[in-house]
């Protein structure tokens, strides 16, 4: 088969590699029909995730058809159309029993495209298939479903749930990239009074409005003052950091009200200064987290019911064999307008970015 193989920082290629085979009785082999590129994949290529060894197939989000299962797999069978979760779960260890699947100690957690070969390939081996793939409702398209492999549960769990968003809250989302937009869309489910989106790009702020933001602010034009004006000087109840940069994290801490919460979602590649000299007296809570995907079944039901807006998040589609081009378009989002790129499916042409 062909796959996108990591060869070290700054080096990867779409090339021939060995077909995956079952290595455990709980594995499934899935033919990949739709796959996407994540910001974390870009961090891997930059060298920010040293655990990824050269020779690893990248990718941790996909939709496909089960072609083979181990003898102990019970929840899916060959021919089933499934969502491959970005997180694998053994279902038996202490963390899995507490629905903290991202911290699985039984060979799961974030392993696809990280510790084992991932989904940016024609076929992928999924460990612990009973807990790591989800049968898809017929009315959820591949293009929408692949967004539920990572960005929607990440925005919802690491953003809203960790940040304890409540009805009537003021929520600020700093960073209107794919995960930030997913955080905005899923925040609507929890009935905040207002959602404010902050980004440097006008196109992303426009997308944030379409995803459900009530107000937007350019990062370079005093967003902290806008939040203060909207809240009578108090600040945000919840600030969701969805970039992974020191300056955006510090911006979030400055926009919180006393008793507020910062939910860090972004993947940070370098240290961040925590200004405890200012924060200690404000009763603030700061959370971090790797997504657990315990919310994926619920989000799938919401998507099937038309209650989870995904329109506008996918801006470009490619066939699988144009993986390198898809990476290039996604990495240059400021120039290309890319929000989420999806590869695979019957369409063979690139769809240009839309507003």
Notes on the protein architecture:
α5 crosses α6. β8, α6 and β9 form a beta-alpha-beta unit. This protein folds into 2 domains: 201 residues, Medium-chain alcohol dehydrogenases, catalytic domain (Quinone Oxidoreductase, Chain A, domain 1, Alpha-Beta Complex); 136 residues, Rossmann fold (3-Layer(aba) Sandwich). The two termini are 35 Å apart. The radius of gyration is 20 Å and the shape is globular. 27% of the residues lie in helices and 24% in strands. The C terminus is likely disordered. The strands form 3 sheets. Strands 3, 4, 5, 6, 7, 14 and 15 form a 7-stranded mixed β-sheet that branches. It has a 6-stranded parallel β-sheet with strand order 10-9-8-11-12-13, sandwiched between helices. With 355 residues, it is of the alpha/beta class. The chain is built from 13 helices and 15 strands. InterPro entries: ADH-like_C, ADH-like_N, ADH_Zn_CS, ER, GroES-like_sf, NAD(P)-bd_dom_sf. It holds the Pfam family ADH_zinc_N. GO terms for molecular function: oxidoreductase activity; zinc ion binding. This is Alcohol dehydrogenase catalytic domain-containing protein. Belongs to the zinc-containing alcohol dehydrogenase family.
């Amino acid at each position: 088969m062909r796959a996108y193989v990591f060869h070290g920082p700054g080096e990867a290629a779409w090339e021939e590699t060995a077909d995956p085979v079952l290595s455990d009785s709980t594995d499934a082999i899935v033919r990949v029909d739709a796959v996407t590129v994540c910001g974390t994949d870009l961090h891997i290529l930059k060298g920010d995730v040293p655990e990824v060894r050269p020779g690893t197939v990248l990718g941790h989000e996909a939709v496909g058809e089960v072609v083979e299962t181990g003898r102990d797999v019970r929840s899916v069978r060959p021919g089933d159309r499934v969502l491959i979760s970005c997180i694998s779960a053994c279902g038996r260890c202490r963390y899995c029993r507490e629905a903290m699947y991202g911290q699985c100690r039984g060979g799961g957690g974030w392993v696809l495209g990280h510790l084992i070969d991932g989904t940016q390939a024609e076929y992928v081996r999924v460990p612990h298939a009973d807990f790591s793939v989800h049968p898809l409702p017929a009315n959820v398209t591949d293009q929408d479903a692949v967004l539920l492999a990572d960005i929607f549960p990440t925005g919802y769990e690491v953003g809203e749930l960790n940040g304890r968003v409540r009805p009537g809250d003021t929520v600020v989302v700093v960073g209107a990239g794919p995960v930030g937009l997913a955080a905005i869309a899923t925040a609507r489910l929890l009935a905040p009074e207002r959602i404010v989106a902050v980004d440097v790009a006008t196109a992303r702020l426009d997308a944030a409005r379409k995803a459900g933001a009530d107000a937007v602010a350019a990062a370079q034009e005093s967003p902290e003052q806008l939040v203060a004006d909207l809240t009578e000087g108090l600040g945000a109840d919840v600030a969701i950091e969805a970039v992974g940069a020191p300056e955006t994290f510090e911006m979030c801490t400055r926009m919180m009200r006393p008793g507020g919460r910062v939910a860090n979602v972004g993947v940070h590649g370098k240290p961040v200064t925590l200004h405890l000299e200012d924060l200690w007296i404000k009763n603030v809570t700061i959370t971090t987290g790797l997504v657990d995907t315990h919310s994926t079944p619920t989000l799938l039901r919401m998507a099937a019911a038309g209650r989870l807006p995904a329109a506008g998040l996918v801006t470009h589609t490619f066939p699988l064999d144009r993986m390198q081009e898809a990476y290039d378009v996604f990495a240059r989002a400021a120039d290309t307008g890319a929000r989420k790129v999806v590869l695979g499916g019957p369409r063979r042409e690139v769809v240009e970015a839309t507003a």
